[in-house]
């Protein structure tokens, strides 16, 4: 046990008379059932599939039984949700004939990956056969799966704000990938001509670089963890700051008020993310190459990071930044490091 006044600031309790649940550090729970119900209804009613045969769309959420909650246990967020869902859909053929059917999702829960969720599509009783059933089973189901993914992602971002409140001396601390040196924070008083001259001298100067390797394990699937790194809302959640993330090859990203910027050079779903990556304080125009590789390890995900072209003077800072503010930040925000026995 840490000495009085030392250790994790979330354990500092000397200013509290009761010394209980400081900054939500111990077990807290938030009911997400009503929010989930409204979110799911909104997502399902937006499902619409269309081809040359006609149009299929979800017209009603006829059954939505279940519950959802988020628990914070010593700084780790744990998500519970379980839903039994029935939807009504309507198909309109290209000739104007209407058909009715149902979609059943009996086992949406935190115990199953979205890809494992059972989704059954059928026509209503006495409805004649129609090619629109195939459209709903294929394109319609794809959109329903996408809606379920969005629900799970937003549950883990929008609804978790304030669940963990680490503070130091009563003031909330703002995480950043690495501290910016004071010299970099001071505004220059040089004249524009002098500033431009300094910039022109720095361009093209060779700097010594190095290679870094990191490895960590997350209690989630490769698919889920892959999406954490490329989904703007999820990036904003674990960095606790605005972000811009264009999740395409060649797409740009900007994190932590521009402290980190770069570009995706390769995106292989569930397997690998490669990017050009830099700190704002690095020499102008210099990017490192960061490659994240995801491997399924018996229900967990092992991530291997390889970084090339890191300025030699920034080696330790970069390694610490990725380990502490990316990997640990993701575990703390989404509960991917928590084990319950």
Give structural notes.
With 341 residues, the protein is α+β, with helices and mostly antiparallel strands. The strands form 3 sheets. It has a 7-stranded antiparallel beta sheet. Strands 1, 2, 3, 4, 5 and 6 form a 6-stranded antiparallel beta sheet that branches. Strand 14 and strand 15 form a beta hairpin. Helix 1 runs antiparallel to helix 2.
Q: What's the number of extended β-strand segments?
A: 15
Strand order of the largest sheet: 9-15-14-13-12-11-10
Give the fraction of residues assigned to helices.
25-40%
Helix and strand pattern? EHEEEEEHEEHHEHHEEEEEEH
The rounded distance between the terminal residues' Cα atoms is 22 Å
Low-confidence stretches: 1-26, 163-203
Class by helix and strand content? alpha+beta
CATH level 1 class label of the largest domain: Alpha Beta
Average pLDDT over all residues:
80
Indicate the overall shape. Answer: elongated
Strand residue percentage: 35-45%
Task: Write down the Rg.
Answer: 25 Å
GO biological process, one term: protein folding
Keywords: Acetylation, Chaperone, Cytoplasm, Endoplasmic reticulum, Isopeptide bond, Phosphoprotein, Stress response, Ubl conjugation
Family: Belongs to the AHA1 family.
Subcellular location: Cytoplasm, Cytosol; Endoplasmic reticulum
